[in-house]
Design goal:
Blueprint (H helix, E strand, L loop, with lengths): L1 H17 L10 H13 L15 E3 L4 E2 L12 E3 L4 E3 L4 E2 L4 E3 L2 E2 L7 E2 L4 E3 L4 E2 L4 E2 L4 E2 L3 E3 L4 E2 L8 E4 L4 E5 L6
Parallel strand pairs: 1-3, 2-4, 3-6, 4-9, 5-10, 6-11, 9-12, 10-13, 11-14, 13-15
Antiparallel strand pairs: 7-8, 15-16
C-alpha cells in the first residue's frame, strides 16, 4: 500500500512539473524521475516535452509529432526535427538511431534545404544505429534493420528493410497487438 502511494505520488509530481510526456506509465516512475532530473534540473534537452535520455539530442522538438512512445529514450539518438518528423503509434527506436529531416544545399553548404517531413507509420521498429534521411516515408509495421541507411520511402506495410542504401529484405505477417 505504501509503495503504491509513493509511486502514484511520483507520477503526480512528474505530471504536474514535467509535462504530459512524463506521466507515461510505460516507463517506471524512477526511470522517469531520472529523466526529469536530467531535463528539468540539469537542462539537458530541456525544450523537449517528453522524457529523453541525456545522451540523446533532439533538435526542434516542437516540429516532432510523436505517437505513444517517446523518441530519444534510448542512448545516443540524434533526432533532427527541423523539417518535421511524424512518428506513429507504438514505434520502437533503438540506441544511436539518427532521424535527420534537414539536409544541406549541395551548392552552398551553409544553407539548408526545406524538404518534406519524415513520416514513420504505426508499429515500426528502428534498429540500433539506423539512419533515416529527409523525406522518407515508412509504412506500418516496417522493421528497419540495425545499421541501415534509409534514403528513400518504403510505403508498403509488413516489411523488413536493411542495408546501405536500404532495400526490402523480407516480408512479415500482420503486426499483432
Amino acid at each position: 500500500m505504501i509503495k503504491k502511494i509513493i509511486i502514484d505520488s511520483i507520477y503526480f509530481f512528474l505530471r504536474v512539473f514535467g509535462g504530459k510526456g512524463f506521466s507515461n506509465r510505460l516507463y517506471g516512475p524512477f526511470v522517469l524521475l531520472k529523466f526529469f532530473f536530467w531535463q528539468k534540473i540539469l537542462r539537458i534537452n530541456s525544450e523537449t516535452k517528453w522524457p529523453v535520455h541525456f545522451t540523446s539530442r533532439i533538435k526542434a522538438p516542437s516540429k516532432i509529432t510523436k505517437g505513444t512512445r517517446n523518441p530519444g529514450m534510448a542512448i545516443g539518438c540524434y533526432i533532427d526535427g527541423r523539417n518535421g518528423i511524424v512518428i506513429g503509434e507504438n514505434v520502437w527506436i533503438g540506441p544511436r538511431v539518427s532521424l535527420i529531416s534537414k539536409n544541406h544545399n549541395k551548392n552552398d553548404y551553409t544553407k539548408y534545404i526545406n524538404q518534406k517531413s519524415i513520416v514513420i507509420g504505426d508499429d515500426c521498429w528502428i534498429g540500433a544505429n539506423a539512419i533515416i534521411l529527409p523525406e522518407v516515408n515508412l509504412g506500418n509495421h516496417v522493421i528497419v534493420a540495425a545499421g541501415a541507411v534509409v534514403t528513400k520511402s518504403f510505403t508498403q506495410n509488413n516489411i523488413v528493410i536493411g542495408g546501405n542504401p536500404a532495400k526490402i529484405i523480407s516480408h512479415t505477417v500482420e503486426y499483432s497487438k
